Amino acid sequence: MSEETLSNLLNETRRFPPPAELAATANVTEEAYRQAAADRLGFWAEQAARLHWEQPWDEVLDWSDRPFARWFTGGRLNVAYNCVDRHVEAGHGEQIAIHFEGEPGDSRSVSYAELQREVCRAANALTELGVVAGDRVAIYMPMIPETVVAMLACARIGAPHSVVFAAFSAAALRSRIDDAEAKVLITADGYHRRGTVVDLKPQADEAVDGAESIEKVLVVRRTGQQVPWQDGRDLWWHELTDRQSDQHTAEAFDSEHPLFILYTSGTTGRPKGILHTTGGYLTQVSYTHHAVFDLKPDTDVYWCTADVGWVTGHSYIVYGPLSNRATQVLYEGTPDTPDRGRFWHNVAKYKVSILYTAPTAIRTFMKWGGDIPAKSDLSSLRILGSVGEPINPEAWIWYREHIGGGRCPIVDTWWQTETGAMMIAPLPGVAATKPGSAMRPLPGISAQVVTNAGVPVPDGGGGLLVLDQPWPSMLRGVWGDPERFRDTYWSRFPEQGYYFAGDGAKKDADGDLWLLGRVDDIMLVSGHNISTTEVESALVSHPAVAEAAVVGAKDETTGQRIVSFVILRGGREEDPGLDAELKAHVTKEIGPIARPRQIQFVAELPKTRSGKIMRRLLKDVAEERSLGDTTTLTDASVMDLIAAKLPHAAEDA
Ligand code: 6R9
Fold it and tell me: Where in this chain does the entry annotate a coiled-coil region (predicted)?
């Protein structure tokens, strides 16, 4: 980014105050902000006390070895006990923890008492295999209840898990197994996706072949398909767990005991093993889930559509919701199987009241059209969440109208694998939300928007988003590489000691925050910093557009020129007039400086497997370079289609 800070370009004036009933019964109110501001550590101590501690902590925060934080030092607790057993002991054993919905339509509901028995059996099974506290276990699994059981079983015996997304390749799994030196791999025969059976075991075999650390491979039977087998190494999950006792005494672990490693793909270099620990992590995921989703465990049905292989699945399918005794939906498959209404059939079937999904999904639903959700009864919904990318104001409004029936507050939640839990988000019973804004840091969290020199910008300014105070669920390091931890996250502002998140943000006149995407994506056009997010949002605010990706391509006169890739809404045909119309629309919304030089209509955009747009590849196309690394793409053929079209793009001077 140049010395000039980001201009505050788009101007959104719509406001949506909380529904009165929600405000009156909200789990968390404005008072929490005041309390946390007066005594931040005291506030977090109170949130930690929502959990069961076997031994109380001595000190809330030890920040003497910064940037390596220690929270709730000396305290001891068991994460699985907190997520399962204590609810059973409190008399809620019959409550459903997980409504599992398989893609073919099979379903199964697991109560907290059943979950407790399954987790105990799995913990005993891992112990029989010689897994002890501190050993790493790799988990390469689809979206099925056994995945949650496996994670909780690891947590129960203090064996950090490393979950690897099931659609990752054998090579990706192997490098993660090697980096963490995992002793056991838990996988499945296969899973159902888009109407077909997808193999998993052959990839797992390829990954494990020659992996020195792996001693056993545990295989869950999901599809019943034939699988290759290596006697002595491979074991069926059901054979091993069925013969275990369903009793297991959970041992308490130190608050700083490692809970899991999760690899972020990043845009460059080797994946980083982000390390999270026990007490601080559970405190913040539990509190934020309670506060931001306002969960009422006796009546709500919660559904997070993320894959458990991402941090959102860890924090807001497994640890946050279960620690709060949620009843939740776990869905195996895709939104368009057997038809494009599947999510809404699921919402109606289970009477989902809280839905947490990603902007990429919302924009896809926009593209498919509002008539699809309109066919299902969505009246059970009361709160809608968004995570993963900036949500364009128009997508936000579409979500509110077509999914939320105009009555549900939207909580846009900003956070990262590294932050472990939500950091910036509105509270649904407090905030008068603004479409496209994540509003302000949650109680107990502190963030700043600063210039390149680290000076906070005033309201109305833009710059770099930094976290200037430690938080309980912060990453404790990069597995095996303390230098990389310092260099990547703490070296940008050594004097101020800020954690730099990599994102740009602006503050509006009220001081509320608008996330502008990764600073690497920010464009410099004729001396102005322009965020891709703002131009994309301007494009999406045109009624013909469902989704847009914008990049800055090298330009001799202006430094960079704005190139945009646009997906039209369902039913809208690409016509010659539309190109000029969209350019004029952006000029009207933002100003001539943001007018795209080129607009390319495409059917799909390149996305990571977690749904984020990969602008880097679009930039390669726009600059007519050969493509960089495409291995993290969901569908690499998308790039061939885009590249084939671009040279014919109409370009104005
Ligand atoms: C939870 C998750 C982190 C990056 C983050 C930012 C982007 C996530 C966002 C958002 C704007 C939001 N991001 N949530 N940007 N508004 N509500 O996505 O973790 O996969 O590590 O990605 O995602 O750029 O820095 P992770």
Answer: none
Of 254, 266, 369, 286, whose CA–CA distance to 82 is shortest?
286
Report yes or no: 486 and 518 within 8 Å, Cβ to Cβ. Answer: no
Encoded tokens for 497: 């000691």
Neighbouring C-beta atoms of residue 26, cutoff 10 Å: 17
Smallest CA-to-CA distance from 465 within 428, 388, 518 is with 518
C-alpha separations of 214 from 138, 150, 151, 234, 481 in Å: 9, 17, 18, 11, 22
Q: What is the pLDDT of residues 203-212, one digit of tens each?
A: 999 999 999 9
Q: What predicted TM-score, i.e. pTM, was given to this entire model?
A: 0.95
pLDDT of residue 440: 98
**What pLDDT is stored for residue 652 in this prediction?**
42
| 97 in Cβ contact with 85 (< 8 Å) | no
pLDDT of residue 8: 60
Nearest protein Cα to ligand 1, atom 26: 416
Where would I find the H helices in 429-549?
A: 482-490, 532-540
Q: Whose CA is nearest to atom 11 of ligand 1?
A: 390
Residue nearest to ligand 1 atom 3, measured at CA: 416
pLDDT on residue 397? 97
Residue 312 marked ligand-binding: yes
In 407-511, beta strands by DSSP E: 410-412, 447-450, 462-467, 477-478, 499-507
Q: Whose CA is nearest to atom 23 of ligand 1?
A: 388
Q: Which amino acid is at 8?
A: N
Share of the chain above pLDDT 90, in %: 87
pLDDT in tens, 147-199: 999 999 999 999 999 999 999 999 999 999 999 999 999 999 999 999 999 99
**Low-confidence residues in the chain, pLDDT < 50:** 1-3, 647-653
| pLDDT value for 527 | 85
Provide the CATH number for the domain formed by 542-648 in this structure.
3.30.300.30
- Kindly tell me the burial class for residue 388, based on how many C-beta atoms sit within 10 Å of its own C-beta (0-12, 13-18, 19 or more): buried
Is 440 assigned a ligand-binding role in the annotation? no
pLDDT given at position 141: 98
Local structure of residue 129 (DSSP, 8 states): T
Burial class (CB in 10 A: 0-12, 13-18, 19+), 650: exposed
Question: Residue 74 C-alpha to ligand 1 middle, in angstroms?
Answer: 32
Q: Which is it for strands 499-507 and 302-304: parallel, antiparallel or unpaired?
A: unpaired
Cis peptide before 67 (omega within 30 of 0): yes
Query: Which DSSP state fits 648?
Result: G
CA of 109 to the centre of ligand 1 (A): 31
How far apart CA 474 and CA 61 sit, in angstroms, is 12
Ligand 1 centre from 144 Cα, in Å?
25
Dihedral sign, Cα of residue 395, residue 398, residue 403, residue 404: positive
d(CA 547, CA 602): 10
Q: Are 411 and 426 in contact (CB under 8 A)?
A: yes
The per-residue pLDDT for 653 is 33
CA separation for the pair 137, 164 (Å, rounded): 11
The CB density around residue 157, as the number of other CB atoms within 10 Å, is 23
Classified as helix, coil or strand, 160 is coil
φ, ψ at 321 (rounded to 5°): -60, -45
Residues whose beta carbon lies within 6 Å of some atom of ligand 1 = 264, 311-312, 387-390, 412-417, 438, 501-503, 515, 517-518, 610
Pick the atom of ligand 1 nearest to 502's CA: 25
53 is in an annotated binding site: no
Alpha-helix residue ranges (DSSP H) falling in 557-604 = 576-589
Question: Is position 99 annotated in a ligand binding site?
Answer: no
